[in-house]
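User: Predict the structure for this protein chain, please.
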Amino acid sequence: MRFRFLGDGDCPDWLLAEINTLSRMTSIKMKLLCQVVVKSLTEGEFDEEKVKKLTQDAKLELDDSKAIVAALELILTSSARYGVSPADLSSELQQLGLPREHSAAIARIHTDNCPQVTAILTSQSLRLNRLTSFEIVPGENSSPFNKITLKLKNINGQEDETSINILRNEIPVLLADLKKARAKMDEY
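Assistant: Here is the predicted structure, written as structure tokens:
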């Protein structure tokens, strides 16, 4: 069976297993857990203690807690990514075996937070290395080259350093080309 909130794809087996685990929680606690997941997605702050508190009553192990957080994250990000309506999301979650109250709670969270989640997904969709600093070191008097050292922070947060040698008279040409490229990027 195909599900719109999964991009018209089939439901992964692990998600089906976690639907069963989610059903063991009360709908109110599951709604609170969804709010923790949304906060983690939008603000980058994951409150592990709150998750432990919310899942204790359902007698869930730590691994089960992590798995249902991953399931909720998948449901919320996929439904935002594919622009699924709250009614369709609720209906499809019920088809997977989630109780109506639980499905409605997730659909409400989806409705309230879809624009923020979509904005975060958009900002993360094309991540490039970020320039943190650069330095131009003039060559010796007899050398026609300058050395340009670029420090880049990659998507993992690690800093890389790259050096290139360029003819002194080509630096203005390089700068003009970079400005043109930047203007094109700003258009999009």
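The chain is about 60% helix and 15% strand.
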